Fold each of these.
Amino acid sequence: MTDMSSEHLDQTLPTVDHPASPDGPRPPRLLIFDVNETLSDMSPMAKRFEDVGAPAHLATTWFAGLLRDGFALTAVDSSDSFAHIAAESLRVGLHGLPLNRGAADAVSHIMDGFAGLPVHADVPDGIGGLGGLGIRLVTLSNGSAAVAEALFDRAGIREHFERLLTVEDAGRWKPAPEAYAYALQQCGVDPEEAMLVAVHPWDIDGASRAGLATAWVNRTGGPYPQYFGAPALQAVSLTDLADQLG
């Protein structure tokens, strides 16, 4: 775990003013994609839990818990890597279960599952369609850039992305405003010129509070939590989003 540096804490959102077009909202110059669950299909992780003798449903609660702990560290001006929090929360969560191997081997087996995850079925065509609109595409993940790089290489979509950004370089996890500010500064755009694309309502809300437009990808058809700021766009898939932006 590492304390926040003054360099990270001094990051602020760009303030250059670009008046809204009289014809309505302009298409974004930059699309910023979340990675975990938005682009990657994490459902195979359940099988990894079963492999080690743990219940498959723990995959969902484990992932939610590691996000919670990353958010908690950010709330107290601290930070740690996604990989470390993920592995440590596994070590704690698997304790006492009737595993079929040692705890360290079980943690390693589950963590290795990230290296083989696929993207969702709509992602290749959706990313291709969005890239064809002339909009710049980047990622901003609470996970590592290396995991995103390998995921995109397997899916054949890496060429569409200008940059793969991670909050590990921002010093604050999303949904802290400094995380979004980091992405904007790296890409040289103002908040109103960018749109965050994510399946997580907490990410949509955080980006909206940081001044970005947002697109919520709702593949399940579930309701959006009313305690979060509503997205500017809703799409059932990335291909649907490409159609809306086109």
Amino acid sequence: MKKGFKDFDIDLKYGQIKEQKVKDMFKDCTIEVKSERNWWKKTGNIAIEYEYRGKPSGIYATKSDYWFHRLEEDKEEFCTLVFKTSTLKKIVDKYKDKLTKNVGDNKASKCVLIPIKEMFSKEFYSDQVSQV
């Protein structure tokens, strides 16, 4: 067997199992899709809205099972982050007191600005997993 190919069948099977898991995730569930234009690239943050004019909105109002957060660059999709809505709510709960910003028309929306690079750090991830 050629070098680098000895575990191909194991890797293929593993990949097929994970592909099926992703397909199954979205069976009989609801999703919410939010698109974030160029600001994420300028600031390094994603913005998760949770309140509008003093009432729950965005993540706190959705009934969806999953939250898709599209990051766009010049009106084109750069990538999409997918969260279980319940997990993203916990992240917002944890960070809203220190990372909230009023945005939008008349600054009527409250959003948590979460640094993208922190979302992928071991400390951030480990902390979220322990709370879920």
